[in-house]
Design goal:
16 helices, Farnesyl Diphosphate Synthase, homodimer, mainly alpha
């Protein structure tokens, strides 16, 4: 089954990459002819998109569609939607990295950092990064709006996309505001476009949203939370080589994660005070924060919670009237996502 | 004819406002139920939208559709697209004002300034303003993608919208980069979504893009440039009460306009040096810059150019096979736009 999953992932990746290259290539050609001075803006967004490797969101989209039965005439639409999801992610990452002041993404300078360097001006870098995101957002919407599907299924796709877009923006707003409900932020900001949205889009494209939406929402929600928890664990305890992001970045930004919240709830007063002083401090020492999280049992608790959420996902698949092959792909993806090392 | 134009503008304004209130009200209700902490983000975007008064873009959209003949089954779609254009403008203004550091818009604090005040933090204000724009962009795209039109006309609408969106973003990028080709920036950044885009959308909605697109492009392009020139003239010589923006803001930002470019080309060396030193200087004295522009003849030349562009628009209407009533509305709008005092 793992070989099947690898073959499936490889095929989705290849198709998504090819579509991405065509879409971005067409935009680049147009820009080269009409306003070449603006090319670095698009180029850095293209670089970031093509540096992404896993293409998990298109894989979840395709797997959800296959879990509903034969994909039939939706095959081409799924390819477009998979590319749209990846470009949508690039747009979000560009804007988020500027908001969080993250200078590194996927092992290279983030877009605002790269463009600040191109134009030797941080504000021009920030503005053109925001615009690069906006340009991608336009391309994404054009892909989603022109996907070739019969009327009713297309309407369902548009509705699913509008929902995921609204959720992710509101989630990012709560994150920027340091809203105390960390799980709600994860659900809206990450789960929405990482798991719930791709699955909803896949079902909508094959006309199975009503029949299976409820079942797969019970699969998607815990998986989205598990994905974010794994992300937090990697951000806290992983290496830069594994994550492509600076180690301890979340600590220095003072980002509330499930780990820090757990630690602040479980540490004795003195340790708690030390931890809360370090979080959000630009010189926060990563090793000290890590030691405090470990002492609070945050890592073990988070691992236990990821495992629990993973079982919830798999249980949700058990009861659902799914195509066995598609269900097995979804189960395999859930295992990869909860167990991933980067 | 002026009474007819006023009645038409009043009717478009009323319909657009009603639609905007419904769309924004639905978003607000959803947010109030799901994430009330994020409400100020949407509220400030809503305030800015409803502070806008002229609704020129929806008027051009409706007038272009009527110039093609009876509007027929596209009436409701035009209402949706008119609201979409206004929300799209709010999105652009929010992002632009942050990029330009403009603290005032339509006579009140711009969105990033209002939100910085709400949360007592300029960076949180900037982030949530960008997100407010992104949220509106999502709403706009949902409106455009779900507009009720038969397949081929809907595809033409989507294509027109994708073009105007790409042009305006690329134009803003060139503006941020202080690209020397001022007229190209105006064409892409302003003409695209102010005149060319609304007209293209109106024609697409009634299925007249192929038959009349060329004719009305000859009307739209000079009108877009005239609109921007009038904007520059008001920004340079108008009052804050007229424009809702700080007097001399363009000078202090060092924004290249047709006026400054003309003056730098026509002033004697000493005056030229003085002007170029003042442009982009935070303490630039508005009266001195105005005097230099007047000495260079920039104001008279710009007025002459606006008049010439206005005649070009009206000439383009003469030769086109248009419905007389719709053509007369377009002509009236062109006069209002070129002669407007705010």
């Amino acid at each position: 089954m793992s070989a099947d999953l690898d073959a499936f992932l490889g095929a989705v990746r290849a198709r998504t990459e090819a579509r991405l290259r065509r879409v971005l290539g067409a935009s680049r050609e147009h820009l080269a002819a009409s306003a070449p001075a603006a090319l670095p803006m698009l180029q850095s967004a293209e670089d970031l998109t093509l540096r992404g490797g896993k293409r998990l969101r298109p894989a979840l989209l395709h797997a959800a569609a296959r879990a509903a039965g034969p994909v039939g005439d939706a095959d081409r639409a799924l390819e477009d939607l998979g590319a749209a999801l990846e470009l949508f992610q690039t747009y979000l990452l560009i804007h988020d990295d500027w908001m969080d002041g993250d200078a590194l993404r996927r092992g290279a300078p983030s877009v605002h950092a790269a463009l600040a360097d191109t134009w030797k001006d941080p504000h021009v870098g920030a503005c053109t990064a925001i615009l690069a995101g906006n340009l991608l957002s336009g391309i994404v919407h054009d892909l989603v709006a022109t996907v070739e599907l019969p009327g009713e299924r297309h309407r369902a796709v548009l509705q699913a996309f509008a929902t995921l877009e609204r959720d992710v923006i509101v989630g990012q707003c709560l994150d920027v505001l340091h809203h105390p409900d960390v799980e709600k932020i994860h659900d809206l900001k990450t789960g929405s476009y990482t798991v719930q949205g791709p699955i909803a889009l896949g079902l909508a494209a094959v006309g199975a949203a009503e029949r299976l939406g409820e079942h797969l929402a019970r699969f998607a929600r815990p998986l989205g939370l598990a994905f974010q928890l794994r992300d937090d664990l990697l951000g806290a305890f992983g290496s830069e080589a594994e994550t492509g992001k600076p180690v301890g970045g979340d600590f220095r930004e003072g980002k509330q994660t499930w780990l820090t919240r757990h630690a602040l709830q479980h540490l004795p007063p003195e340790d708690k005070l030390q931890l809360s002083r370090m979080l959000g401090h630009p010189d926060a020492d990563t090793d000290t924060v890590r030691a405090l999280l470990l002492r609070a049992g945050a890592r073990d608790s988070a691992e236990a919670r990821v495992a629990l959420l993973g079982r919830e996902c798999l249980d949700a698949l058990q009861g659902a009237p799914l195509d066995p092959e598609g269900a097995s792909l979804l189960a395999g993806l859930a295992r990869r996502i909860t167990e991933r090392a980067r």
